[in-house]
From TrEMBL:
PANTHER family: ACYL-COA N-ACYLTRANSFERASE (NAT) SUPERFAMILY PROTEIN (PTHR47370:SF12), ACYL-COA N-ACYLTRANSFERASES (NAT) SUPERFAMILY PROTEIN (PTHR47370). Residues 31-199 form the N-acetyltransferase domain. Pfam families: Acetyltransf_1. GO terms for molecular function: acyltransferase activity, transferring groups other than amino-acyl groups. InterPro entries: Acyl_CoA_acyltransferase (IPR016181), GNAT_dom (IPR000182), Plant_NAT (IPR052810). Belongs to the acetyltransferase family. Keywords: Acyltransferase, Transferase. The keyword Coiled coil does not apply. This is N-acetyltransferase domain-containing protein.
Length: 422
């Protein structure tokens, strides 16, 4: 089992030997920030996680169950760290960070007209939590500052985070106090898993790709997409990745006659699309809280009707008010005049896969300018039309010279959302 410590130097080594203590005004309470210790911190971290809602307060909110593994959301990243903040023996906050190499731009190959990716070392902040009873004490700020020190020690050139645009406290912390700039506004699209399977088009064939074929397609077609991970092979071969699926017009290819990715790339059909599926259900579960009794009753009624009249294929609302699992669709893309049709077929296929595996929703995250976005089925009430990504440049020496300052670059049509960080 990986600990994520192999590449850590500097700050982390110092933290192993000596805890870092800070005093905050106005209360002057001593807060200790140190590396997470699974042997003594797991219970306290999960207690804070259970009482911290995800998203702005005062609305329907999501709460997370980490299934006893506080580092589950970063465990599959190539390099990661988790810090905790405590007052006395009480855990009052935590933050997670990970580092990877991704595409930040593209340039012409020196021997031709082909576009090749420009890579940079990128850090990601996620899972920042501060107990509701200990907010406005500077704890969140200190956690961010300490994880940023670790990012710099490990050579990260940029750091970014994601939050809802309406989460005023989070946005202010990062933009006003930590020097981050608003960068991208992708959409999180969520679709319920109904009590009945969805029909897929008879004019579309769906082929499950071997990881090596999937990797070749992604590297050939999507390596210049913003945020594309250079270690995409690690993602595709992870146990949580349930497969990559290619949709093609019926009659062009069949699963039993699939010739492999090189042949496909040499002579692709007029239209095609692909996506990969990540199993979040086995990592953590979510629960919606704050719904009225009327809304819960309405949702239950739709499920009862769907169960009693399955031939009508009524759109039922799954039980999201109890802990539920979900699948995340990543690496979605395609080409050709019928690409949207192919995407719809893939999404129906992914829905049925999630139903068979006991999930309640399927989710994906795409650029707000993604050409295939309109083909992705989703319920607006469950989705986040504008997720907010904020970014910060961490140092002075960079590998992205031809891009300039990535934080000031205009958005492209697509982004690659790494499922290891969702």
């Amino acid at each position: 089992m990986r600990t994520g410590r192999d590449n850590r130097t500097g700050l982390v080594d110092m933290m192993r030997g000596e805890e870092l203590a800070f005093a905050f005004s106005p209360t002057m309470v001593e807060v200790t920030v140190r590396e997470f210790d699974p042997n003594k911190d797991s219970e306290g971290v999960e207690a804070v996680e259970r009482i911290c809602e995800v998203g702005p307060s005062g609305k329907l909110s999501l709460f997370t169950d980490l299934h006893g593994d506080p580092i589950c959301r970063v465990r599959n990243s190539p390099t990661f760290l988790m810090l905790v903040a405590e007052i006395g023996q009480e855990t009052v906050g935590m933050i997670r960070g990970c580092i990877k190499t991704v595409t930040c731009g593209k340039k012409l190959h020196r021997h031709g007209s082909k576009q090749v990716p420009i890579y940079t070392k990128l850090a990601y902040i996620l899972g920042l939590r501060v107990s509701p009873h200990h907010r406005r004490m500077g704890i969140g700020l200190k956690l961010v500052q300490r994880v940023e020190e670790w990012f710099r020690e490990n050579g990260a050139e940029y750091a970014y985070m994601a939050t809802e645009k309406d989460n005023v406290a989070s946005v202010k912390l990062f933009t006003d106090k930590c020097g981050y700039s608003k960068f991208r506004t992708p959409s999180i699209l969520v679709n319920p898993v109904f009590g009945h399977p969805l029909r897929t088009s008879s004019k579309v064939t769906i082929i499950r790709l071997a990881p090596n074929d999937a990797e070749l397609l992604y590297r050939t077609k999507f390596a210049t997409t913003e945020f594309f991970p250079r270690d995409v092979d690690s993602v595709l071969n992870n146990n949580l990745s349930l497969g990559t699926f290619l949709a093609v017009p019926r009659g062009s290819y069949r699963p039993d006659t699939w010739p492999g990715a090189p042949h496909f790339l040499a002579d692709p059909p007029s239209s095609w699309a692909l996506l990969s599926v990540w199993n979040c259900k086995d990592v953590f579960t979510l629960q919606v809280r704050g719904a009225s009794r009327v809304k819960k009753t309405l949702a239950k009624t739709t499920r009862l009707l769907d169960r009693a009249l399955p031939w009508l294929r009524l759109p039922s609302i799954p039980n999201l008010f109890q802990p539920f699992g979900f699948h995340f669709l990543y690496g979605l893309g395609g080409e050709g005049p019928q690409a949207q049709k192919m995407v719809r077929a893939l999404c129906a296929f992914a829905h049925n896969l999630a139903k068979d595996r006991g999930c309640q929703v399927v989710a994906t995250e795409v650029s707000s300018q993604e050409p295939l976005r309109c083909a992705i089925p989703h319920w607006k009430i469950l989705s986040c039309e504008e997720d907010l990504w904020c970014m910060k440049r961490l140092g002075e020496d960079y590998s992205d010279g031809s891009v300039g300052d990535w934080t000031k670059s205009p958005p492209g049509f697509s982004i690659f959302v790494d499922p290891r960080e969702f």
